[in-house]
TrEMBL record:
UniProt keywords, alphabetically: Lipid biosynthesis, Lipid metabolism, Nucleotidyltransferase, Phospholipid biosynthesis, Phospholipid metabolism, Transferase
Organism field: Zophobas morio
Enzyme Commission code(s) on record: 2.7.7.15
Keyword Transferase: yes
CDD domains from the UniProt entry: CCT
Protein name: choline-phosphate cytidylyltransferase
């Protein structure tokens, strides 16, 4: 059996660039240009085209984004699709943090095959002046209302003017969904990246977690056993804590009882001391008065001196 003859590649289909450094700059298929580049070069609107504008954040660019841009591109046979991408400052202020920075998002969009032009740092609200400045005929976006400080739907005026083209969202895929997958399977991806040579500093995880992740994942049977052991340990710690609380309560009751007893004794001693002091003062006053009275009687009655001495001794 004869071998099949190798298919000859046409000369026009052979590699255009032998040098890898020129594969991007001299490629047959280039990425979509930025609006600023076209304006610097003085390139104006192509005649006979319908200019459609679509904007977004396009974080973690996925096929849901690509399908939305495909729908916008297919609205007209001669469609020239301009895609606006919001910058980091505006996005973080209104929507929150992003996974990709603005430069990465700009580049991701311009490499989509349906895009003809990319506008960097796109505004959040599309005004009439913006449409006129960029010669935009229609705006394509999904039909959900997007609010702002000025309006409940930033595309409302475009819908009223008949300049809005509604696109359909792709169910089951979104940037938030991708982030949720990573968060939900956090341990799996940590182990994956550690195995690929990333350090704990790269992954922002502690030494203890890296030590735990260094072990292979447990089997379902081992996971059940470990879960039972955890529950038993938690129950043991709970009982110990309950016993300590009860012991502490008993000691506290003893302290309170002792304090009440001591306080009552202190009060009684104070009252007793106060009563004895008053009695001593009264006795001293009585003795002093009796002495004075005796002296007076002695002087008046001219009693013997022995009598005075005897009374004074009292």
């Amino acid at each position: 059996m004869s071998k099949r003859k190798a298919r000859e590649v046409p000369e026009s289909s052979k590699k255009v660039n032998g040098n890898k450094e020129n594969l991007v700059s001299s490629a047959l298929f280039k990425a979509a240009p930025f609006t600023r580049e076209l304006r610097e070069q003085g390139i104006k609107k192509k005649p006979g085209t319908v200019r459609v504008y679509s904007d977004g954040i396009f974080d973690c660019f996925h096929f849901g984004h690509a399908r939305a841009l495909q729908q916008a591109k297919n609205t007209f046979s001669n469609c020239y699709l301009i895609v606006g991408v919001c910058g980091d400052e505006l996005t973080h202020k209104i929507k929150g943090d992003t996974v990709m920075n603005e430069k990465e998002r700009f580049e991701a969009v311009r490499h989509c095959r349906y895009v003809d032009e990319v506008l960097e740092y796109a505004p959040w609200v599309i005004t009439s002046e913006f449409l006129e400045d960029h010669d935009i005929d229609y705006v394509a976006h999904d039909d959900l209302p997007y609010g702002s400080e000025e309006a409940t739907d930033i595309y409302g005026h475009l819908k009223s003017a008949g300049k809005f083209i509604a696109t359909q969202r792709t169910e089951g895929i979104s940037t938030s969904d991708i982030i949720c997958r990573v968060v939900r399977n956090y341990d799996v991806y940590i182990r994956r990246n550690l195995a690929r040579g990333f350090t704990r500093k790269d992954l922002n995880v502690s030494f203890v977690r890296v030590y735990l992740f260094s072990y292979p994942p447990l089997s379902p049977r081992d996971s059940i056993i470990l879960e039972k052991e955890k529950r038993a340990q938690i129950a043991k710690l709970t009982n110990e804590l309950r016993q300590r609380v009860n012991s502490g309560r008993s000691k506290l009751e003893q302290i309170v009882e002792k304090w009440e007893s001591n306080s009552q004794k202190l009060i009684n001693d104070f009252v007793k001391f106060f009563t004895m002091s008053k009695l001593t003062v009264n006795l001293h006053i009585t003795t002093h008065t009796l002495h004075n009275f005796t002296m007076l009687v002695y002087k008046q009655a001219s009693l013997p001196e022995n009598f005075l001495k005897d009374v004074t001794c009292i």
